[in-house]
U32 family peptidase C-terminal domain-containing protein
Amino acid sequence: MTELKKPELLAPAGSLEHLHMALNYGADAVYAGVPKWSLRVRGNGFIREDFIKGIEEAHSLGKKVHAVLNIIPHVRRVKAFEKVVDEMAELKPDAFIMADPGLIDIVRNRYPDIPIHLSVQANTVNAGSVKFWQKVGLTRCILARELSLTEIDMIKQECPDMEIEVFAHGALCIAVSGRCLISGLLSHRDANIGACNNSCRYGFNVRNVHAATSDDMIAFDKANDTIICADLEESMHHPGEWMHMEEDLNGSYLMNSKDLCTLPVLKKLIEIGVDSLKIEGRSRSPFYSAAISRAYRLAIDAIVRGEQIPDESYTIVNSIPSRGYTTALLEPHRPDQTQDYETNSPNPGTLQICGEIQSQDEDGTLNIAVKNRFEKGSKLGIFTPSGMLPLSAENMVDAKKGNALDVAPGTGYFVKIPYDKKIDLSTSVMLRIDN
């Protein structure tokens, strides 16, 4: 039996806390956006000083930091790029993630020794494109999300010397590898320069509903014999602006994709020889980066050992807020298996951050700033890099007054809970488990 190569597990870092959590929970590397030059302006907390500290921490652990410079800038912005890339190059990140050929050319000429990974924004869907970018001097291609497992396999076989990265988990855009115009159309915020506001997730109000036969619509799918025509209002940001819509019986959440989860096909991706598996989510919480990193760390290690993916991996991903899961275009699906036609809001999951453990006394007592309500009888846990530790609030007391409490109502309250184990405050997350 051929020994399987262990791929890099690459996690999102929207801040230094994300980086710290992801690396301690099993990620081999993180990717962080350079301010104003990556596609996650919203929620991107990384500044120059953070890159300095983050790269130092990652390298001390034998891990990597990839700096994201993947916007597609208009001509007026290009001149400012040289100063930005000079400043970033001094910090010695392990790679730049880029999409724009002009910016790539600047970096190749100025810093030929810094590896460049081709962003998913470049929409690479065939081996010829991969070979082209390899000739240009890039060391890795992040393939488009529109590829099947078979196509990824074909590309890797034709390009064995080029590193191949694919998305393994996270939100999916209704776009070609993220090149989307919906946010710009509805909200005048260009997703291709980092200002996406997730317009595809919005709910819509409906009026002037008309049920028509298929004869009324030239392009109507005759498998269904009814179509709904209506006017739509995106009420959150555009009240009073009505758009005409045509809809089949599946509903009006036409752009609301389920989230990607590749655990069901992870063994195949590893067998193909994919070099890096990427978790999407720089705008998600540090806990998300930690939890999903642990889920895939456990899964990857088990597969390489020749074992089944442990139940804990599935338990974690199914406990995290999501829009439901799909393997998307990696496998063939009916539309209802990839689209969420039922709701425009995430499944809240069963794990809720309910407190921040601020310190621990000599006797083990935890000093907690309450974040969400929990009660004496709530099922609680402390999420750690080695797994979930049970926690009981049976003997909870008010941190200021010292009196016993039955309920910690929410933000603004501080409580003490006795505990008999020493924990690492920098990586431990207090959770309420709602299952």
Notes: The longest helix spans residues 286-304. The radius of gyration is 24 Å. Confidence is low (pLDDT under 50) at residues 216-226. The CA atoms of residues 18 and 226 lie 48 Å apart.
